Amino acid sequence: MKLKCASHSHTPKIGETDEQHKLRRAYHLFDRQKITQEQVLEAQQETIRESVEEQQKAGVDIVTDGQIRWNDPLSHLMKGLEGVEIGGLLRFFDTNFYFRQPKIVGPILRKSSLLKDEVLFLKKIAKGETKAVLTGPYTLALLSRIETSAYTSIEDVAQVLTEILAEEVKELAEARVSHIQIEEPGYGLVQPHWGWAERSMETLAKNKGKAKLWLTTYFGECIPFYSKLQTLSADVLGLDVTYSSKLLAHIQKEGTDKELALGLLDGRNTKLEDPKEVAKALHSLDQVLKNGVCYVTTSCGLEYLPRDKAFKKLRLLEDIKREYQRGA
User: Fold this and answer.
1) Which of 85, 107, 124, 316 is most deeply packed, by most CB within 10 A?
2) How many domains does the chain have?
3) Is 328's pLDDT higher than 70?
4) Contact present, 324 and 279 (Cβ < 8 Å)
5) Using a CB cutoff of 8 Å and minimum separation of 24, what contacts does 199-203 make?
6) Residue 94 counted as domain residue
7) Does residue 43 lie within any of the structural domains?
8) Which residue(s) pair with 159 in the sheet?
9) CB 82 within 8 A of CB 111
């Protein structure tokens, strides 16, 4: 099989040096009305450039913009929709990070593009393959609070969000991003009705154009619904290997009809894995993926780590790829 190194999603916004605190300073000065929104955007773009450069320096084949403009996985998308208000802070799964919970207060409508400008900037500065990331409709709905009679269930909200995100997928594909990742960590928290999930992913996939559509789960055990994921309309399944010591053996046994993106490195732990051991584990899937592509990545985004440690994790991806090729 052919290996490619891929960034998962987000990267740290600040670092250890004074220069790497520019974005935090910009937000602080903006809150005090000392600088303009345009100056904040400049600080964001500088930080995005640094993130992309670090990813490429580490040897990553598929880069993201680090989701530098995102405050959290939910509010960045939901704040741009009518019928939604952004509420208080809640813990994001079992991490030490928090998100502002969206409140559904009326019919949800898309006012304008949510990510097109961000992806166009990524395309402008990046070399090679690029990936855009969207929190999936089910996870957005599951972690939101419904405060309107317009919707009676999580799946009602998720269905409306599916239609909105399908428009986003279409715009991202037209911007010629190489990969579009739909993140559904919510699948491992409360499994969806799988018939609905099939229809939802079909709707998104219709608009993907030439881009590869990823469906990614993390922060949970996916073996119980691995076979269900295989039925969904995605080109690539992104799986968190760090949550299950038995996942690779399960894949070897069950096989796959899709390309896989394996989160082999723990994105929440500064400990550096042994690339030889990871490469050895990958060889167990040689027969399963012999004619396809396997993407090696981290278990989740890297904003949970210090910036220097996040860079070392990215460097490990290339080390794994090199060790795998030596043993081929």
Assistant:
1) 316
2) 1
3) no
4) yes
5) 200/137, 200/138, 200/158, 200/159, 200/162, 201/232, 201/233, 201/234, 202/233, 203/162, 203/163, 203/166
6) yes
7) no
8) none
9) yes
Nearest-angstrom CA–CA distance, 98 and 80? 19
Q: What is the CATH number of the domain that holds 91?
A: 3.20.20.210
Question: What range defines the domain where residue 271 resides?
Answer: 2-16+58-326
* 3 state DSSP class of 253: helix
Of the chain, the end-to-end C-alpha distance in Å amounts to: 9
Residue 22 backbone dihedrals phi, psi, to 5 degrees: -60, -35
Return the bridge partners of 82, or none: 109
Q: Which residue has the tokens 């994790």?
A: 313
Residue 46 lies in a domain: no
Write out pLDDT tens, residues 201-226.
Answer: 999 999 999 999 999 999 999 999 99
How far is the CA of 288 from the CAs of 65, 83, 248, 284, 307, in angstroms?
A: 32, 46, 11, 8, 35
Averaged pLDDT of the chain: 95
Q: Is 86 helix (H, G, I), strand (E, B) or coil?
A: strand
Task: Tell me whether residue 44 is in a domain.
Answer: no
Question: How many Cβ atoms sit within 10 Å of the Cβ of residue 255?
Answer: 11
Instruction: Round to whole Å and give the CA distance between 109 and 293.
Output: 37
The predicted model scores a pTM of 0.96
| The pair of three-digit structure tokens given for residue 229, joined into one six-digit string | 């994921």
How far is residue 213's CA from residue 130's CA, in Å, rounded to a whole number?
Answer: 12
Q: Which two tokens stand for residue 120?
A: 């166009």
